[in-house]
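Give me structure tokens for this 164-residue protein.
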Amino acid sequence: MSIEGRSHRKTNREGPEPGVDEAIRALLLLMPRMVGRAKRIRVPEELQSLALAPRHLSLLSYLLFDGPMTVKDLAARLEVAPTTVSLMVSELSRKDILERREDESDRRRRIVSITDSKRPSIDSWLARGARAWRQALHPLAPEQRQMFVQTLQAYEAAMAYEGD
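Here you go.
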């Protein structure tokens, strides 16, 4: 599909709104800047030597926002195999970022959480992105926020599908 020469505008009663192709153009120009800014978020000094990768960011975000959980629950949220999460948890446990403890209600289960010593650094690392998203999403109605998140999820799924 060619992206050239497609700047048609659709109008409504409130004025012009971008057509699909114009919106695609705007997003294709915006996404590299967003990714670049996200990559420039400074990793706190305490975490710099730990060689954290982007795959760790989602795992740490779930634990920070949703609290301690099992490897199985993390795997379901991250949409990867439990063995993958188990390896990541082992790696981060060796670096004193995560800890595993027995579930008091079921001693066969292990609960994963961020260590108290690393929680402030991880929180400050993720806070800038959270503040930016809060500022961008706050003016939207709940339905608009839901549509925005679903649109990003659909984009990510389409990119994953086309990459296979």
